[in-house]
Write a structure and sequence with these properties.
Helices cover about 40% and strands about 15% of the residues. The chain contains five helices and six strands, in the order βαββαβααββα. It has a three-stranded antiparallel beta sheet with strand order 1-3-2.
Amino acid sequence: MTPVKIPPFNDSVIAKPGAAFLPFRDDILRAVGTLKPLGSSYSVIKVGSKPYIRSVPKELNTDQSAVLEAVQVLGYVSISMLMVNIRWARARAQTAVEDLVGEGMLWVDKQSQEWEYWSPGFMLEAQDSLTPG
């Protein structure tokens, strides 16, 4: 499963000449809902406080959900962060993180002394905040 984070759209879009159309959050949610009768596997799930679009029918287990909630704080987690903050054993933290990496829901940064596991959605948010708009 590769969830797509729903961007934090402002519900008051002002049309500017030549500007690209930005859909409202409700438009996105409604569009995903209209696919359901077609037998589509698309659905909206909430991880922590943020909605994501699920494109493949896969349930997250409680450990995977806890890791994704932790990632929302800084954009990444490490095994030691999970061990200290959630009080997990190393094997449990490693298993949850490896499952999410395998599903493409976390990306690995091997440049630090301890590997960091980043949310692709967080990186896109950071990139968007740096883009003048």
